[in-house]
């Protein structure tokens, strides 16, 4: 009682070739989702849809470390570096003066305050804040808190949902830029012996790159001896 059409369909199904081995691998590779920022690598599935995500995870950290923890860490470092980048520029223009706040390049100020105790005070305060934030991070790991959220919005900029999502992306992008900028400020000074604003207003080409490299290496040795 099977129709001719059904017999033909079943016959086709029986004789259809199922791709195996290399053929199947090639087809699955074609269908694999690729990263937007590194198109020759597989898309990191845990990074898809995150605020400001460029799907950049070439080492696969998001596969072994909870993504909420990575978001929290990136936001925290980005916020610190946004403050640091501003602080670099302000310190070139203004200091309190006196023996404890002398006028000096920001990079050299690090070593100065390591010797006078200022960096120890900063370390103590940061350790205190880190301890207080442990509870918030724990709530994040439980899925009860959004990464990086502390309810700090005195101007009410995030009341509108669309605006809130936009500011989320703005913050993460500016934080990433600031992390790169602070590293650039420090290495620029090691290489040129010029501060940021000084080089902008009185640019000197790096005529002696060997000296710049030596300065950078001397600074690294000093940091190593300090710690």
Note poorly predicted spans: 12-16
Oligomer state equals single chain
Spell out the helices and strands N to C.
Answer: HHHHHHHHH
Question: Which structural class do you get from the secondary structure elements?
Answer: mainly alpha
How would you describe the shape? globular
Helical stretch count?
Answer: 9
Largest sheet: none
The fraction of residues assigned to DSSP E strands is: under 5%
- How many strands in all? 0
Report on the architecture of this protein.
By secondary structure, the chain is mainly alpha-helical. Helices cover 64% and strands 0% of the residues. It has helices at 4-15, 21-31, 61-64, 67-93, 106-116, 118-141, 161-192, 196-201, 209-226. Helix 4 (67-93) packs across helix 7 and helix 7 packs across helix 9 (209-226). The longest helix has 32 residues, at 161-192. The chain is globular. The termini are far apart. Its main location: plastid. GO terms for molecular function: chlorophyll binding. One of its GO terms (cellular component) is membrane. The chain crosses the membrane at residues 80-101, 121-138. Keywords: Chlorophyll, Chloroplast, Chromophore, Membrane, Photosynthesis, Plastid, Transmembrane, Transmembrane helix.
